[in-house]
Amino acid sequence: MLSTAEKTGEIDFKTIAEELSNSSTLNSVDMRAVLYGLQNMLIKYLKNGYTVKFGDLGNFRPSLGGSGEDTPELLTANHVSKVKIIFSPSPNLKEVMKTVTLKKVNK
């Protein structure tokens, strides 16, 4: 038997914006605009090859997967089979996750 993470549920973008607006001077519509802007900046910089540092959340960076060649001159875009985003949690987020309460779930 293996230990696995039991998913509690999902929180959508609108709910996060509403909760954030409750602890700020922005209303939920303005907060969504800010979050959409943040989302667009993340996409913009990842597409341009940047690592995006999100403070105590962690870093997002673009990555490629595919086949190689013996010399760089032989490499082309056709050698790339996968474009992905790698998230690396910050040391602070890793510490926070160590404090998660665990419980047994019977299925």
From TrEMBL:
Pfam families hit by this protein: HU-HIG
Q: What organism does this protein naturally occur in?
A: Chryseobacterium lacus
Check the record and name the InterPro entries matching this protein.
HU-HIG, HU_DNA-bd_put, IHF-like_DNA-bd_dom_sf
- Which SUPFAM superfamilies is this protein grouped with? IHF-like DNA-binding proteins
Query: Which range is the signal sequence, renumbered to this chain?
Result: none
Q: Which GO terms describe its molecular function?
A: DNA binding
Instruction: Keyword check for DNA-binding, yes or no.
Output: yes
Could you identify this protein by its name?
Answer: DNA-binding protein
Superkingdom classification of source:
Bacteria
Q: Which UniProt keywords apply?
A: DNA-binding
Task: Domain (HU): give its ranges.
Answer: 5-104
